[in-house]
Amino acid sequence: MSFISERVNNLAASATLAMSQKSAELRAAGIDVINMSIGEPDFNTPEFIKEAAKDAITANFSHYPPVAGYLSLREAICEKLERENGLHYTPAQIVVGNGAKQELCNALLATVNPGDEVIIPVPAWVSYVEMVKLAEGKPVLVYAGLEQDFKITPGQLEAAITPRTRVVMFNSPSNPTGSVYTKDELAAITEVLERHPNVLVLADDIYEHINYVGGAPSISQSESLKDRMVVVNGVSKAYAMTGWRIGYLAAPAEIAKACSKLQGQYTSGVSSIAQKAAEAAYRGPQECVEDMRKAFERRRDLIVSLAKEIPGWKVNKPEGAFYLFPEVSAYIGKKYGDKEIRTSGDYVLYLLEEAHVAAVDGDAFCAPGYLRLSYATSEDNIREAMRRIREASEKLQ
Ligand code: PMP
Ligand code: GLU
Q: What distance in angstroms lies between residue 79's CA and the mean position of ligand 2's atoms?
């Protein structure tokens, strides 16, 4: 007899978190694993942000904060949206939550009815499909492989939209591919969406600052879609604040209100201290964002050049985020002793066991045949990991 609901039984566990946990366990057991599975900046949170958190404790920010977030933080977010994205929102349209993750999930729970279709361009971040399932929606996957730089075309989007389509999710720069849509590509996608006024757009801009093309435009800036646009963002990636758990959404007031109602019943407002830290991040000096971006760019160049030396791997040149998403199906069918690599997942496990490098199977991102490496780690780690991967891969016959 199991007490577990169908809702949870039907849910896949987060592969990124599972792989990271596995590599932490191996490390604890004394194995020198290089963890390139989880995607999070390896930098520490900048000092001025940490100071703001300490000040908040001293100033007794210790009571329940408002469900949608402190007004001062929501104001700082509105200023950020105006300053950096040219978007005009008011604090009543902002909901702060436990990371961008919670706000993505809130947006889906607040807008999707059972059986509604949600279009997800794939490869996509592990949690999108599962969040849609939680909301009892039907994920509709639109696939774009390496040969199209992992970007869907307007034609593909048009073909996927039906009268049951409720939401289209969009993430550029993308996790797991690092692809960045150009202004023209976004304009063409926007044109398709303009023809379907009943479709809501959920733009996940969490990697906006981590791009190597001099500023990544976003679908969230499509003025014609503004009254059905939900923008999700947060401090995790831009300010190296993954553990602080602050994200937000900006949306038409009705949707923001619905998300706030939802949150009011199952989490309340997010940690008061973390909110004050996030406010400092948005209001303080912004050089730290650019310094980290530059470091990621050097690492991107390094990992791409090393990945090209691995026989059988096919790689694009990611223009944003901090992931490499090589196509590795050349290894399927190869053997090492009596072990046969039957899937990209087998190859990922082989790399963990043989090379002690933790990656994530592309299957977790709806793209079997690929794997994901997070290069948010030191250049030394990247060099060593790629050396080990190449050596282990060359043993496969
Ligand atoms: N969206 C994408 C595409 C991500 O990669 C992540 C980080 N895993 C998130 C949202 C969630 O970020 P957080 O909850 O840390 O703000
Ligand atoms: N962005 C990270 C990743 O994709 C965080 C882990 C997660 O929440 O999935 O690895």
A: 27
